[in-house]
Amino acid sequence: MNTGVKRTGNASMVRPLVWFFGGLIVTYVAGVAMFWPPAGEQPSQAIFVVLMFAPTVGAILARLFGGGRIQWGRPNLWLLAGLIPAVAVLGVYLLGASIGWDTEDPSLLRAALVAAPAAILSASLSAVGEEIGWRGFLWPMLRGRSGFWVTSLIMMVIWWVYHVPLIILGWYGDVAHLPAFTVAIVGITLFIGVITDRSRAVWPSVVTHGAWNGLVATSFAATEGGERVPAFAGSDELMGEFGWLAAVTILVIGVVAALWHTRTMAGPVTPSK
Fold it and tell me: Could you read off the pLDDT of 204-221 as tens digits, one per residue?
């Protein structure tokens, strides 16, 4: 099968990429500097909002001044595919509860599932700040000259580097759980790459990212007594987005989806408007 892509010259990529990464880095550094927390305290949510929209700032600058293009696309049925990772992790957590890897609170889980659409929507409002840059701008541009696997590798490295400073600072997870987080980055990059190629739209990636942040990262938390309480509890080594259960699950899903995609894609991938 032809899994090639429409080729574009290297020169046409330089200007938009300079604007993209320049805008992203300046916004990222400015956000860290402006909202650096007092010694011994965790940062406010403001810093995460700024950093999550740094890729969007870069994409807009690349569009306005670098001649780049943002692939918006139209909402389609691939939006539903974006829920697959969160649903799969839920299944693994339930299996884990049955064999003693974790514990489940049925009443909290029911409440979490009822509130899941609201949780996904809320998390997607911030996830869209990343995805406009990553899958709206950068992925289509790279796919305009590279194959799926090369583009995925580049995206993995960039996305990993984007998160690592916060992990090292202890503001987002911790260094001890970086290996599991790295595995998760590999898997989710592959999966989101597949649904972005197939849908030729940014919106399925927003749903995937939002569902992951809103459900998996919180261990399917529900509100109880005014606080968010996880429906699943267990070792930090296993649970949450820095745990091995979610990491291995998304890696398997990502690899399977990527192998299917690259073997069945019948034509070149060209970005949509």
Answer: 999 999 999 999 999 999
Query: Taking the complete model, does pTM exceed 0.85, yes or no?
Result: yes
3-state SS track over the chain? CCCCECCCCCHHHHHHHHHHHHHHHHHHHHHHHHCCCCCCCCCCHHHHHHHHCHHHHHHHHHHHHCCCCCCCCCCCCHHHHCCHHHHHHHHHHHHHHHHCCEEECHHHHHHHHHCHHHHHHHHHHHHHHHHHHHHHHHHHHHHCCCCHHHHHHHHHHHHHHHHHHHHHHCCCCCHHHHHHHHHHHHHHHHHHHHHHHHHCCCHHHHHHHHHHHHHHCCCCEEEECCEEEECEEECCCCCCCCCHHHHHHHHHHHHHHHHHHHHHCCCCECCCC
